[in-house]
């Protein structure tokens, strides 16, 4: 059999985790060098095909697909597919080409590749320099340094920085306790019991 040309093979972008055919054009979208200007608005794009599509969909509003069940028209293939998934439960899944895991949306696949396969922690906390693989985890970490505690306990005056911390605290008002199965010690928080297992029963906690 004839071998496939390497030109049609997707490559992994080390910056954002996307799998792309044209790495030169895609890299320009990150570096912002030699971008193509839309003749009708300030938008700039790295790829000429995408620029033509932008003009047709945003400025000329050319309908390229219509939904058969409800008759709604769409200017892009992506909006058509999103509509079919959201309103008619019809649509393809997107496969990670590294581990073959399936996703319903291409953005979820990109996020998965960036977080799992690219492996670089590009998001750094400006206060403590701790690094994270995605913006969401960095944002959650930021609460550690904040004095803002927007989550109030419904049973006492205590306030917390996260909904999870509030929920964990409210369990203590219910009288629920976490007992060690190997000794007589009892804890108010499950995290304290877990720490007890790690420190006092390391062999069993690692099983």
From TrEMBL:
Residues 36-59, 65-87, 94-122, 123-150, 151-178, 178-206 form the C2H2-type domain. SUPFAM superfamilies: beta-beta-alpha zinc fingers (SSF57667). The lineage of its organism: Eukaryota, Metazoa, Ecdysozoa, Arthropoda, Hexapoda. Keywords: Metal-binding, Repeat, Zinc, Zinc-finger. It comes from Anopheles braziliensis. Coiled coil: none annotated. GO terms for molecular function: zinc ion binding. This is Putative c2h2-type zn-finger protein.
């Amino acid at each position: 059999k004839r071998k496939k040309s390497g030109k049609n093979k997707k490559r992994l972008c080390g910056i954002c985790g996307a799998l792309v055919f044209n790495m030169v054009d895609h890299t320009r979208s990150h570096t912002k060098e030699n971008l193509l200007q839309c003749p009708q608005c300030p938008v700039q794009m790295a790829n000429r095909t995408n620029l033509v599509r932008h003009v047709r969909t945003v400025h000329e509003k050319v309908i390229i697909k219509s939904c058969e069940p409800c008759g709604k028209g769409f200017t892009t293939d992506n909006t058509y597919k999103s509509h079919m998934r959201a309103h008619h439960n019809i649509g393809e899944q997107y496969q990670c080409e590294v581990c073959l895991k399936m996703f319903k949306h291409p953005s979820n696949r990109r996020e998965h590749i960036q977080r799992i396969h690219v492996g670089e922690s590009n998001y750094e906390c400006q206060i403590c320099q701790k690094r994270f693989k995605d913006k969401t985890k960095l944002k959650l970490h930021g609460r550690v340094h904040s004095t803002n505690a927007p989550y109030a306990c419904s049973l006492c005056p205590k306030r917390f920085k996260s909904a999870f911390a509030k929920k964990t605290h409210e369990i203590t008002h219910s009288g629920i306790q976490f007992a060690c199965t190997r000794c007589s010690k009892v804890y108010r928080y499950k995290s304290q019991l877990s720490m007890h297992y790690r420190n006092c029963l390391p062999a069993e906690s690692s099983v």
